[in-house]
Design a protein that fits this description.
With 258 residues, this protein is of the alpha/beta class. It is built from nine helices and ten strands. The strands form three sheets. A six-stranded parallel sheet has the order 2-1-3-4-5-8, sandwiched between helices. Strands 6-7 form a two-stranded antiparallel sheet. Helix 3 runs parallel beside helix 4. The chain is globular.
């Protein structure tokens, strides 16, 4: 048998005479590039581990972006990104509760109310935590959950509806702004323990904010007014959310299980 026949026969038998390529070991440069890309895309050094937790965490930070795109240097939360996430969390059977963390200066009124209405209409337990600030239209989002928590050092700015850009000076413009403001007032008062009179007093208070009317409410005052449920942080929020999840599990469609 010549060499060609011997090689052909061994190839048919499954042996090629070649060794498999060793596994590629990532270099230090490759590891650094991967970590850098992860930080740029997700803001963290490690990839999120899906499926390990029954709690879905959402963050609402920066300025809430509505129908107009904000400048690229602004840190924004886009409502068209938040709404599909809320729908997916509601549909996913592995997710049993939602933790919403806020540090926002406010933003678009209708976009903020849309997010707040979505959170309020979820069937799964929800807890909001205000860390840093939950200002302006962030107030309805903060009170939309089943239970709301605010850090002691956090603040919430309550002020009337404001408009920017071209404003037509006719009575209809002011009537429209008043109706928009009533939407915010109704939502906040119906999802918290604060009264409409108290909320409007904070909203129209003068002399506390620069060039504006309104009130900056601290964490303890927000609880005192009935706007938020308690002062705390992430530990209290997760503890409360887990207890709500456990309580929900004990109730079946036919009643309480034994």
């Amino acid at each position: 048998m010549d060499n060609d026949q011997w090689t052909t026969g061994n190839r048919k038998a499954g042996w090629t005479g070649e060794t498999e390529a060793p596994p590629v070991v990532p270099t230090e440069e490759g590891k650094k590039a991967a970590v850098t890309e992860t930080i740029q895309q997700l803001g963290q050094t490690g990839l999120p581990n899906g499926g390990e937790s029954n709690v879905y965490c959402m963050t609402i930070i920066g300025q809430i972006e509505g129908h107009l795109v904000l400048p690229p240097q602004n840190k924004t939360t886009k409502y068209e990104h938040m709404i599909p996430q809320l729908v997916a969390a509601e549909q996913n059977p592995r997710i049993e509760g939602l933790l919403i963390i806020l540090n926002t200066v406010g933003g678009d009124v209708e976009a903020g109310l849309a997010i707040a209405e979505m959170i309020a209409s979820l069937s799964k337990p929800t807890v909001t935590v205000v860390i840093g600030g939950g200002h302006s239209i962030g107030v309805p989002i903060a009170v939309a959950a089943d239970h709301s928590i605010i850090a002691e050092s956090a603040t919430m700015t309550i002020h009337p509806i404001r408009m920017s850009g071209l404003v037509i000076g006719v009575p209809q413009t002011f009537e429209y702004m008043e109706k928009m403001q009533e939407r915010v007032v109704r939502f906040v008062t119906s999802h918290s323990r604060i009264t409409e009179e108290q909320f409007k007093d904070l909203m129209f208070k003068t002399g506390e904010l620069n060039r504006d009317i309104g009130t900056a409410v601290s964490g303890t005052d927000a609880v005192k007014y009935g706007l938020m449920n308690e002062v705390g942080g992430i530990g209290q929020a997760l503890s409360r959310l887990n207890s709500m999840i456990a309580e929900r599990k004990t109730i079946s469609p036919g009643g309480i299980t034994q």
